[in-house]
Specification:
single chain, 226 residues, mainly alpha, 3 strands, 73% helix, elongated, peptidase activity, transmembrane helix
């Protein structure tokens, strides 16, 4: 069976994504067994960082969606932490809580890439849902107008993922800095925090690469049909 070079790249990106997901889980599990010297829960760490930035109005809630469901809701102005992070006092718990607060800080300072991601979200959401059907249907029916619309919509979804990368890395940078500056981790614990945050960032890199390769493949297919 002959594989197109782009198929090989897509499979490679998929493999990287699967590896990155396993890396996130293994790193979280490993460092969740290491209690931070500050003996603060994820919720307490989040509150301290928020208060240090004057974000007293931002609430901290349990997400109720299981492990690694942590996120910041900009509409509700709420940091939502999974149970292991909310109550946990481990390096993993502190790292994840601080990362989500990093997004709250971005929101409060009108961080440009976060604002751009918010603007792109509606188009990206529509694109990610409709584009595959338009692309596949257009190719099967040899309807290039459908393929073109599908490529435009899928491009919006890919752009959203590209913008997400600096947003996530910036939130992790802020998280590590705040944990150090507020004295909530020691110099010996910085390495563990970095491993937890870097593993999570890899998942975004892998998914973005896969999306970019898929977009290039569809563009090449469309050009070959003309």
């Amino acid at each position: 069976m002959f594989f197109h070079p782009m198929d090989i790249l897509i499979f490679a990106a998929l493999g990287l994504a699967m590896w990155a997901q396993s890396k996130v889980k293994s790193n979280f599990q490993k460092w969740s067994q290491v209690q931070a010297s500050a003996r603060l829960s994820g919720a307490q760490v989040a509150r301290r960082i928020l208060d240090a930035h004057g974000l007293h109005h931002v609430q901290i809630e349990r997400s109720g969606k299981g492990a690694l469901s942590d996120h910041y809701d900009p509409r509700a102005k709420s940091v939502r932490l999974s149970e292991p992070v909310f109550n946990g006092q481990s390096i993993s718990s502190l790292s994840v809580a601080a990362h989500e607060v990093g997004h709250a800080i971005q929101d409060s300072t009108n961080y440009s890439m976060l604002l751009l991601r918010h603007k792109l979200f509606p188009a990206a959401n529509i694109g990610s849902q409709l584009a595959p059907f338009l692309l596949i249907g257009g190719i099967l029916l040899e309807a290039m107008n459908l393929v073109t619309v599908g490529i435009v919509l899928f491009s919006a979804a890919v752009l959203f993922q590209l913008v997400t990368l600096p947003v996530e890395y910036d939130a992790s940078r802020r998280a590590k800095n705040q944990l150090v500056q507020l004295g909530m981790i020691s110099s010996r614990e910085v390495n563990g925090v970095g491993k937890v945050l870097n593993a999570a960032a890899l998942t975004y890199v892998a998914s973005t690469l896969m999306a970019v390769f898929e977009l290039v493949k569809f563009i090449m297919i469309a050009r070959s049909q003309n």
